[in-house]
Each structure stands twice: as C-alpha cells, then as structure tokens.
C-alpha cells in the first residue's frame, strides 16, 4: 500500500472525512507548517494529517504559566508530546486539505481545512521545524446492510436532534437536508453527536461503515434516552464547533 509523508497536526479532537476544520495558528511550529504549505500551488491540494492526541498537550507551554500555571516552557516541534511523539497519538487520523490559509499581519494564520480520507500513522519525524509523519491510507468497505443501517441512524439522529433542541429550549432548524450515502451519514453523525473524544476516535477507526453505523445507532438511542430524562442537559451546537487554538 502506498505511503505518504505529510505535515502532522495533533489535536485534542477528532477530524472526520468531509468535515470542516477551522484553525487559529499562533505557535511557531505550526506557523512554519503553514508557510511550507503555502509553497504548494493553489491548484494543488495543500495536505496535512490531523491526529488525535492520546497523551500530551495541544498547545505547548511557551512561557512560565502559559497555558498551565505550573508549566515549564518547551520548545521544538515535539513540545508537549514527550520523547517519542508516536506514542502520544492515536494511530488512525484524517488527512486534511487546507482550502484557505490566510496570514495575518502579526504572523499568525487563519486556516480553513476539510477532512478528506482516513490514514494510519506509521512513524513521526521531529527533526524539522514541525512534525511530519509517514502515513498509509485506511480504506473502508461498506460492510453488511450499510444502507439499511444508514436509514435507521438518520431516523435516530433526527430524534436526537429534536430532544437536544428541546433540552436547549429552542426550535430545531429543519432547512438543511441530511445526506443518505451510508459513509457520509456515518461520518456526519459521528462528528455531530455530543460524545467524548475516545468515543469519537473509536468511530473514526471503525473497520467498516456498517460497524460505525451500528455503534452510532446504539449511542443515539442511549443519548436520546438520557436527554429525555434530563431535559435541562446543556448542549453545544450540533453542526458547529469552536476554532482550534494552535
């Protein structure tokens, strides 16, 4: 299987194929990464890999007390990820394509990227100004009954949305049409649900689409029941997330 070496961007969250990722870049290692990506012609994909942090800090301590009052400043591309960065990351991540990279006057960057395909992390190189990684694509089969499962997940997801909107004492926007392709459904629902990071990572690395959809169906039923019994449960927006600070 063909491998590729790409810049590596670790986050405390999970990126799924097809989902948009806004980034606010201020650390020097990631500024250097964006400057390198800008060397790629605009008509070519400006690709980097996003992996979820298993053990480490998304923002490295850059000065005493920032961001942790007890932190000691760390420098270098692997700052915050220990002596062996490979051990700090989950092994399945997502390749992202940076559609927009805007440099601000102060040298920081505003980036808008989109997840494209899953990839498995094979090695990490910390010898340059930013982390790079060797990755191989993770292909995905539909699995058995993916179509029927996608229909069930969509029905359950609509109920989940309604319960969540009720818990927030607001109306549910119904203008947006949900997709019906099983793979797209599986990734959209995984990204939109209010789940902890390990659960989202489990969904990302599911062996096939049907397995992910089965897992999501169970999760949707459980979460909907919880919201029904706890109507004041706080919630975040289903289709919008915060810009990651990096």
Q: What order do the helices and strands follow?
A: EEHEEEEHHHHE
Low-confidence stretches: 169-175, 233-240
Number of discrete helical segments? 5
Helical content stands at 25-40%
DSSP strand content: 15-25%
Task: Walk me through what this model shows.
The chain is of the alpha+beta class and 246 residues long. It is 29% helix and 23% strand. It contains five helices and seven strands; from the N terminus they run E-E-H-E-E-E-E-H-H-H-H-E. The protein has helices at residues 28-37, 146-167, 182-192, 197-204, 209-229; strands spanning 4-11, 20-25, 47-52, 92-103, 109-125, 132-137, 244-245. The protein has a five-stranded mixed barrel with strand order 1-3-4-5-6. A hairpin with a 6-residue loop joins strand 5 and strand 6. Helix 2 (146-167) runs parallel beside helix 3 (182-192), helix 2 runs parallel beside helix 5 and helix 3 (182-192) runs parallel beside helix 5 (209-229). It starts with a strand and ends with a strand.
What tags apply to this protein structure?
Lon_prtase_N, 29% helix, single chain, PUA-like_sf, alpha+beta, Lon_prtase_N_sf, globular, five-stranded mixed barrel, 246 residues, LON peptidase substrate-binding domain-containing protein
SSE topology:
Elements: E1 4-11, E2 20-25, H1 28-37, E3 47-52, E4 92-103, E5 109-125, E6 132-137, H2 146-167, H3 182-192, H4 197-204, H5 209-229, E7 244-245
Parallel strand pairs: 1-3, 2-7
Antiparallel strand pairs: 1-6, 2-5, 3-4, 4-5, 5-6
Helix pairs in contact: 2-3, 2-5, 3-5
